[in-house]
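Deliverable D2.4 — example input (structure tokens):
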């Protein structure tokens, strides 16, 4: 079977154990003018492409690819979504996890009108099938993972009418690593080099990063305690100065003038970062004060679809690392949205998780994370960016 990999992001929800039962990370859905052809009758090729599809090399994970019929060729399925689940969840048994995984995948399949999925377990603790004698059948050693897949498949079809078309296991996604079928351990093979996968090459050429581990993504939002303390020491003065400027603008009957100047200040600092300027603690505190203005913050969502999206995203990530509480949540929501609309589901989920950990009541982060869990496509989220463009235009600023 030859399947076009026609991705666009799906959900990535980070490790949200406090808010959801399972970690479901939807990787990018893959959109391209000429869809790549991936032969899924060769499981090794599919498995080798997973790091590119997920955005990082998955470990101790269940990765599910959602298939739907191609518009022009109903007999050729498209990999429409990729969802990663964390297997490191000791608070409930495998059957309980399988039910939760099936529920989340079922919801995505319903939204995408999909009726078939493929599953891959990556876990270094697995033992590959082995022969007892040269003429003996291979003895599968799937253990609890086999039970998880069996329950997952049964719940998918019983509760959602979705078929598990294939399931494989591998200890790690590396060149020459052995893979095997979970339903039939007689079917096995070795992985090609993931670095030379056609999907990997296409992602690299498109400028999409493939991280070596999920920890590289979580490091992007990890607190910088030293700089956070420095920024906190400057934040009170920055907020007081912003309030005084706003009060002055209101007295002059020109509150929009205040919003415009604050937005221009943020845009100026984003431009500075494009040239490699390292912002001081005071400057970062001033940006935090600017983001407390809802008009400014709403306008900045427009940058996610503009020419300066990458620079803005780097600044949001910096602010997430050095701010606390609702200020950190504001920056993380901007970071997550920017990642979401460009198809980086895993980073989006990690950012939304950081936002809600800092401020569990942050409405924008709640809405965006909900959309991510539901598998909403990035183009459906662009309305938020268009609203930001209109907000900026009302202030006399044209964002691009």
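Example output (designed residues):
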């Amino acid at each position: 079977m030859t399947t076009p990999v026609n991705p666009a992001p799906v959900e990535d929800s980070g490790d949200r154990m406090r808010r959801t039962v399972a970690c479901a990370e939807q990787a990018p859905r893959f959109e391209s003018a000429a869809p790549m052809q991936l032969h899924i009758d060769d499981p090794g090729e599919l498995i080798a492409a997973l790091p590119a599809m997920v955005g990082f090399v998955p470990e101790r994970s269940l990765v599910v690819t959602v298939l739907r019929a191609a518009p022009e060729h109903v007999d050729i399925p498209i990999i429409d979504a990729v969802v990663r689940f964390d297997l490191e969840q000791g608070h409930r048994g495998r059957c309980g996890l399988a039910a939760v995984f099936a529920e989340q995948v079922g919801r995505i399949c319903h939204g995408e009108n999909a009726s078939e999925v493929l599953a891959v377990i990556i876990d270094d603790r697995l033992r590959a099938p082995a022969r007892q004698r040269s003429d003996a059948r291979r003895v599968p050693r799937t253990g609890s993972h086999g039970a998880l897949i069996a329950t997952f498949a049964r719940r998918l079809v019983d509760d959602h009418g979705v078929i598990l078309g294939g399931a494989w296991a591998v200890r790690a996604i590396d060149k020459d690593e052995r893979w095997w079928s979970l339903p039939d351990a007689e079917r096995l093979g070795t992985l090609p080099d993931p670095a030379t996968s056609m999907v990997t090459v296409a992602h690299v050429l498109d400028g999409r990063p493939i991280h070596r581990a999920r920890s590289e993504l979580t490091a992007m939002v990890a607190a910088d305690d030293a700089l956070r303390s420095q920024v906190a020491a400057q934040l009170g003065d920055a907020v007081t100065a912003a309030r005084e400027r706003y009060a002055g603008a209101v007295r002059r009957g020109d509150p929009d003038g205040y919003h415009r100047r604050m937005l221009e200040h943020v845009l100026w600092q984003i431009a500075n970062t494009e040239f490699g300027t390292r912002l001081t603690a005071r400057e970062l505190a001033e940006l935090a004060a600017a983001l407390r203005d809802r008009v400014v913050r709403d306008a900045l969502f427009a940058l996610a679809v503009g020419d300066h999206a990458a620079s803005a995203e780097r600044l949001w990530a910096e602010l997430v690392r050095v701010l606390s509480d609702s200020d950190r949540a504001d920056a993380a929501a901007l970071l997550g949205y920017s990642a979401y609309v460009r198809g980086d589901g895993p980073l989006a989920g990690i950012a939304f998780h950081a936002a809600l950990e800092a401020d569990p009541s942050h409405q924008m982060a709640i809405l965006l994370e909900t959309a991510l869990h539901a598998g909403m496509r990035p183009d459906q989220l662009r309305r938020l960016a268009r609203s930001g463009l209109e907000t900026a235009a009302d202030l006399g600023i044209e964002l691009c």
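The first strand starts at residue 2 and ends at 5.
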